[in-house]
Amino acid sequence: MSAVGQLIRAHRTRLGWNQRELSKRAFGDASAGRLRCIDRVEKGLLDGDARIDQLVVALRIPTEEYAAAQGHDEQERAATACRNASQRCDALLTLRVAAGVYMPVAMPQHLSEDELVQRACEQTSNRGFAGHLLLPSGIGVWITREGVVSHRTERRDDGGPGSIHMRYEGRPLSSFE
Angle of helix 19-27 relative to helix 32-42, nearest 10 degrees? Predict the structure, then answer.
């Protein structure tokens, strides 16, 4: 449970309100969606939402107390991201056979990262397919069909592998979002 969720639940119970009463005072109604929102906030599943501010105002929680709880939650998220980033994964080479067709290739796990990159470059040039090598450290290495490393992607803050960026002739394409 998050510190903000615990704070909201503590103030709600101190006032003797149930979730329905809090919903009526904060949002003006007690619909199922509003009650679900309060439940998710108290369980720590919803953060950074404007509806939390409405709950804080309705409960008259002091600003410094709310800010301290938010700071605690942010420190927890940062610590979790750091723990995730330190975890290693198995090396994996994925070859692009055709548009939308990818083939995973098993890589030996006992090799160093430099040796893995060298072996992946050999695999792509021998087979004639471009590839992506995910290293145990979470770094992504993009390899052309000629066996040349074109670029690398760093591991994300949440510990996952680097995100995929579409490229054309070495230039990144704009996102379609």
Answer: 110
- 118-168 pLDDT per residue, tens: 999 999 999 999 999 988 877 889 999 899 998 888 765 555 555 555 566
Closest CA to 141 of 103, 102, 91, 99: 91
Report pLDDT digits (tens) over 37-49: 899 889 888 776 7
Q: Can you list the positions of beta strands (E) in 18-139?
A: 92-98, 101-106, 130-134
Q: Which residues, other chains included, contact 55 with Cβ-Cβ below 8 Å and sequence gap of 6+? A: 8, 22, 26, 38, 41
**Largest CA-CA distance found in the chain, in angstroms, rounded:** 71
- Rg (Cα) of the chain, in Å, rounded? 24
Q: Which residues contact 29 (CB under 8 A, 6 or more apart)?
A: 23
Instruction: State the Cα–Cα distance between residues 122 and 145, nearest whole angstrom.
Output: 10
DSSP 136-155: TTS-EEEE-TTS-EEEEEPP
